[in-house]
Every structure is written in C-alpha cells, then in structure tokens.
Design the sequence.
C-alpha cells in the first residue's frame, strides 16, 4: 500500500496551510497531555517527597506483649504491662536479620534504631522530646539529617546530640553547649549539642532529638538490640510488596508506610484521576479535530474519490488513503507536541530539586511515548469514519459534481 | 471482428413512485472489438446513463449486460472494480484529472493502484502515452497548469494506460474549442486504428460523429438508429 501512502502524503502536502493548522491543533492537544502528565506526576512526586520522603518506607517494631490481666477478688480489672525486656529481646533477634533485609531487592538503606521519650533540661527549662538513637554513619539514611543541618554537623557519636531549630531556640542553645537529657527510664546523661537541623516541619523541629545508638542504649537501658528497624526503599510505591517479602523472609512484622496513610493515598489517587480526565479530554479533542478535518477533506475530494473508484480503485484503497492521512497527522502532531512539551519542561528543576513556590513539573513523567502512541491511535480511529464515508462515495454522483 | 459486449433490454429507472423517471426503456446494443462508435442523441435521451452502466459504475434496473463473456450484472462491487480497472477506460467531458498530481502521475494511476506502487515499467508506458499525445514537454507538469485540450489528452492517455478493450468517452470534446476537439478526436482515431481499442464516444457534435465509423442514435431510452 505504498501507493496509498503516496496519495495520502500528497493530499496533506497539497493544502499546506490546512495541514499545518491541523497538525498544530493535534500538537497542542499532545502538549497539554504531556504537560498534564508531567504536572500530575511531578505533583504526586512532590507530595510524596514532602510527606513520606523523610520517613521510613517500611518499619519493623518490636511487638509489645498483650498486657496481663489480673482479676481482683472484687472483680476490678487491673492492666499491667511489663516494660522493656520482651521488646528488647525480640528485636535483639531481629537485628541478626539486618544483612538479609539489606539484600532484599529495592532496599536502599536499613537503619536500626532505639527510640523513646525523654526530657531536655537546660537550667530551669525542661522540654519533652522524642529521642532517636541511630548508628553513627547512618544518620541520614532515613531522614536526610545532613541535608537539613543548619548549624554544626549531623555526625553523631557518643556524648553528642542533634536538635531541631525550634527546640534549640526555645532553650536558647547554641553549638557546643551542654544539656541534660533524662529518658523515660529515668537515666540522665549530659550531652553536647553538635548540630541543629531545620526541616520546616514544626513537630520535628521542636520535639525531636538525635543521639548515637550507644548513647540511646545508655539512656533507655537497652544493652543490646534495637527497638525498631527503619527501611528506605528505592521506590516508595513498592513498600507493600517489599514489606510482604521481608515478612516472609524474616518473620518480622514489617509495616509499609501505606498502612495508616489511606487519606494520602486517596488524595493522590483523586489527583491521578483528575489527570486521567484532563488527558482523556485532550485526546478526545484531538480525535474530534482530526475527524472533522478529514470529514471536510472527504467532502471536498468527493469528485477525486469518484475518479479513483472509476479508474478501478477498490474501496479498501480509498479507506487506506484516508486512514493513512489520519495516521500521518497523528504522528506529525504527536512528535511536534512531544518535542514542544519536552522543550517547555526543560526550564523546570529536576524532580530531585523541587523548590517551594515553583510548579513541581517532572520532565521524566511526560509520558511522551504514550502520548504519541495514543495520538496516532486516536487519529487513526478518528479517520475511520471519514474513510468509510469516502469509500461509500458513488462515483457516478461524485464525478458529476 | 468479435463481439466485445452486448446489452439487452436495459431498463433504468431513477426514483420511485410518482417521481420515478424511466431513462432507459429496454435498450439493446452490441459492440464489436475494434469499433469506434459515436453515441448520439438529445439531452436526456439516456446516453450518459448507458455509458455509466457499460462502465460498470451502475447496475441497471433490469436487463442483461455481458462483456468479454462475463455477466456484468451479477458481479459484486470488488469484482466489477477490478474488471473496470483492467478492461475499461474512461474519458469524461471535464477531463476529471486528479488536481494535486502531475500529468505523468495521473496517467500512471490505473496501473499503480493495481501494483501498489508506480513501477518503472508503468512510468515508462505512461511517459510513452503522453509523448504520443503530444505532451512530451508537459509530462511532469501539475495538471492545474495545463490547458483544457492538454488536460483532455492526459485523460485519453490515462484511459489507455492499462490497455483496456473498451474506452467510454462521455462528451470528450464538449468542453474544448474546435481545434483542440479535432486534435483529441484524431488521437482517438489513431489509437483505435493502430491498437484496435474499442471506443464508444457520446457526443452532440455531428462533425465529431462523422469521424467515427459507426453512429448509434439513442432516443427516448432506446436505440433508434
């Protein structure tokens, strides 16, 4: 059908202005498609980064034993929870699984931690904090502590503590100053402020403290093991599947971040749905545009179609000529729109460098191939009706026009 | 000479009920191979309708039509389209060339749609036909740049491209000046004489008709002479 292709191409080049307008119209539709893909994808990426980018994607925590119930003679119920030993023992065994967890595909980092509540005291001022003990060298594996450090260093070692900006300001602390930390176990240590971080999250900046794992052992009286293991993945969308895998591999209760994040997932889903709608409308616009232009062309070329049929061109030949026109328009518009979309997205920062106040456009999520494929497919679909109409042209009537 | 085609009792009615118009009323006709016949008759006598039926572009309301031993009434659209491409050429009053193509491309068209592309052999034949039509210097001209007479000669060349047994010409000179008309008719006569192609030429022009060896007069939907 090389000859039908030639006829189709000739028809398109014969009326350059009309073809150009048509291709530009399709290109605009494709441009919108790509722009929306990059925006919706980038926005989802941005929201994910901002909400779950700094948290553990999978968390393994020691399972607390059910409280023992003591029934008094009077029928009153007392609840007693045994503190410490069981939890520590469970994750002491779990710690042996660390190399295995690190070897699971998709796992980027594993951070064993000891965490608990405590009080910071400086002079007469006392503030309640959540203390997290992490292994030196793994400070930035889950939360990008190094990236958020405003003063000093994120590097932790025995006797050092890193605090949030709001907390440090609240206690009027500066680097190098010493403060006392008392854990919920009643253990008190004097620690030196070695770094101040600023995440922009008020809860984090005003109530979190980071110490080394060894310091946390002392504070929470946990001589061995950890209270939790935090795991970061290369793809946070793979958390559910990877958690299942870790659970099967280790028997530990690995919980993905998506547990308890239903509202966020719903919001992202709604956003994605909005994107699908907008992209579908863009596609429909393309289909209608191509169909109407080709229908017009069919009408205008009725005498020529009649001549072709009189010369012995089968109906399938006529159909092919018009469908090929649709495909060529779709391909040209698709390529032009994709190129324009790509060029328009170039000035935006990459997904790793999203900044507040800017549109979080992700150039890698432009769905260029999909946009071109759908456009060509849509244009072919749009040309079927005009092509069938052309094939039905009665040569006698058409030649007489 | 052998029989090329024969139609019997052709009836063609347009419309139904009170507005029904019977254009052909039992027309019968036989054409021999190599004939050059003029189809004469007043407007509305059924000349164009007859040519349309003979060209397999339309089926009659009733009657029989046989060409080259084949029943032209029974064939489906695909069969008749294929037959038309191989065995019948057309020349229309208004030349009806494809406007976005050159003279050569127009002439090569009937062969190219069959082959799926413009073969070198087809291009060579089309070129030879155009040279024969006196259009050697217009071969690659867009048809929109040709005069009326030149366009009609391209149309004649196109009708001959697949070496058809029958060429149907509907008022081929009706839109041309006298000189151009005579030029086209001389070419047709030459080809008829040299290649034995059968021509059936519809015309109002008695002078044109005298160039043909046979005159068929149609009146009121039947052959009257």
Sequence:
């Amino acid at each position: 059908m090389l000859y039908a292709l030639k006829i189709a191409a000739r028809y398109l080049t014969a009326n350059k202005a009309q073809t150009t307008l048509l291709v530009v119209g399709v290109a605009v539709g494709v441009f919108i498609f790509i722009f929306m893909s990059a925006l919706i994808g980038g926005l989802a990426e941005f929201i994910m980064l901002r909400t779950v980018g700094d948290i553990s994607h999978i968390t393994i925590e020691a399972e607390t034993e059910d409280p023992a119930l003591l029934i008094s003679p009077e029928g009153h119920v007392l609840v007693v929870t045994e503190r410490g030993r069981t939890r520590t023992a469970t994750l002491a065994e779990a710690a042996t699984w660390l190399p295995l967890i690190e070897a699971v595909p998709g796992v980027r980092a594993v951070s064993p931690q000891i965490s608990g509540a405590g009080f910071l005291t400086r002079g007469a001022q006392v503030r309640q904090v959540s203390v997290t003990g992490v292994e030196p060298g793994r400070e930035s594996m889950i939360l990008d502590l190094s990236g958020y450090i405003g003063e000093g260093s994120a590097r932790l070692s025995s006797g050092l503590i890193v605090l949030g900006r709001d907390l440090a300001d609240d206690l009027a602390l500066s680097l190098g100053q010493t403060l006392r930390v008392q854990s919920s176990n009643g253990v008190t240590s004097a620690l030196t402020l070695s770094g101040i971080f600023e995440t922009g999250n008020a809860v984090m900046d005003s109530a979190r403290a980071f110490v080394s794992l060894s310091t946390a052992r002392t504070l929470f009286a946990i001589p061995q093991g950890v209270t939790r293991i935090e795991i970061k993945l290369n793809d946070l969308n793979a958390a559910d599947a990877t958690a299942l895998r870790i659970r099967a591999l280790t028997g530990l209760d690995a919980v993905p971040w998506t547990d308890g994040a239903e509202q966020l997932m719903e919001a992202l889903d709604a956003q994605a749905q909005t994107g699908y709608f907008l992209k579908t409308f863009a596609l429909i616009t393309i289909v209608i545009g191509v169909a109407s232009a080709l229908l017009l062309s069919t009408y205008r070329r009725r005498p020529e179609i009649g001549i072709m049929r009189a010369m012995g061109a089968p109906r399938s030949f006529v159909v092919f000529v018009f469908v090929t026109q649709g495909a060529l328009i779709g391909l040209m518009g698709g390529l032009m729109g994709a190129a324009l979309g790509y060029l328009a997205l170039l000035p935006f920062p990459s997904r790793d460098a999203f900044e507040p106040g800017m549109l979080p456009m992700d150039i890698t999520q432009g769905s260029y191939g999909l946009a071109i494929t759908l456009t060509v497919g849509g244009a072919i679909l749009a040309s079927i009706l005009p092509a069938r109409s052309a094939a039905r042209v009665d040569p006698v009537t058409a030649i007489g026009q | 000479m052998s029989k090329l085609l024969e139609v019997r009792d052709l009836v063609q009615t347009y419309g139904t009920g009170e507005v029904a118009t019977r254009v052909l009323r039992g027309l019968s006709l036989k054409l021999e191979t190599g004939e050059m016949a003029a189809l004469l008759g007043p407007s509305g006598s059924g000349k164009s309708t007859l040519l349309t039926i003979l060209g397999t572009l339309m089926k009659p309301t009733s009657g029989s039509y046989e060409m080259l031993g084949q029943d032209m009434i029974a064939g489906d659209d695909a069969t008749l389209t294929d037959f038309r491409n191989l065995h019948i050429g057309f020349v229309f009053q208004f030349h009806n060339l494809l406007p976005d193509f050159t003279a050569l491309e127009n002439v090569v068209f009937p062969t190219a749609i069959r082959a799926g592309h413009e073969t070198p052999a087809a291009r060579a034949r089309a070129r030879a036909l155009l040279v024969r039509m006196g259009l050697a210097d217009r071969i690659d001209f867009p048809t929109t740049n040709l005069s009326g007479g030149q366009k009609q000669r391209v149309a004649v060349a196109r009708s001959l491209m697949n070496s058809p047994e029958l060429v149907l010409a509907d008022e081929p000179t009706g839109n041309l000046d006298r000189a151009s008309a005579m030029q086209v008719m001389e070419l047709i006569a030459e080809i008829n004489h040299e290649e034995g192609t059968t021509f059936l030429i519809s015309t109002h022009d008695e002078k044109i008709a005298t160039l043909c060896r046979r005159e068929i007069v149609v009146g009121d939907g039947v052959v009257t002479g």
